[in-house]
Amino acid sequence: MSPLKWIITYGCKLGLSFVYRIDGSDMAKVPRDGPLILFTNHRGLVEAPILYTQLAPRPKVTALGKIELFKIFFLGFVMRVWEIIPVRRGESDREALRSCIDRLKEGWILGIAPEGSRNQTGALQKAKGGISLLALHSEAPIMPCAHWGAVRARDYLKRFKRAPFVLKTGEAFRLDTHGEKLTKEIRQEMADEMMYRLAILLPEEYRGAYADLSKATTKWLRFEA
């Protein structure tokens, strides 16, 4: 980790610790090195820097970030230092996909939110099928990382308290087509199976579109030994 990245990462981590009471003990289960796709739910903007700083000092950590955020002066600067991969939402961004695959091949940990856009209630939305293509093309293992908390942080600060924020990780796995042709429907089934692994980690009120755990299957998942 370069001196500049170290200063920004640990500076952000310290600043976030003043606002949030972060339970990141589960992050010790995340391997030090990749390749690894670490997928998570998408509630707001603060989860990304919390997740990134909780993964420190792992040397090769990146994530996808919408390209519009790179235009915000300080935020764009931090994202460049952290080597975040810009992505154009709402279209098939092959350049971003290739960058993700290249980083994974080089042994990076890649953070990604399969929902695509932020959910406004904290409850899971239906995932996009593109995550399946990335996992299959890269052949990287996948690990769910659920988070909750950080709601109404200002209310906590007014009472001189820190807002709670919890991170939980699940068992790693890979996707397996079992020799079947990869159709759009199968890609979505794979994405849904992944999201159920995330839902299992979340409190019931945040499971949203994946609340009915009886529908969870593992047909396309191959769990790591």
Please state the average pLDDT score: 92
Number of helices: 7
Radius of gyration: 17 Å
Oligomeric state of the chains present here: single chain
Order of helices and strands: HEEHEHEHEHEHEEHE
Total number of strands: 9
Measured distance between first and last alpha carbons: 30 Å
Task: Estimate percent helicity.
Answer: 25-40%
Major beta sheet, strand line-up: 1-7-6-2-5-3-4
Strand content: 15-25%
Major sheet attributes: 7 strands, mixed
Which residues sit in consecutive blocks of at least 5 with pLDDT less than 50?
A: none
- Which structural class is indicated by helix and strand composition? alpha/beta
Number of domains: 1
Shape category: globular
Structural write-up:
The protein has one domain. Helices cover 36% and strands 19% of the residues. The protein has seven helices and nine strands. The strands form two sheets. A seven-stranded mixed sheet has the order 1-7-6-2-5-3-4, sandwiched between helices. The chain is globular and about 55 Å long. 35% of the residues are buried.
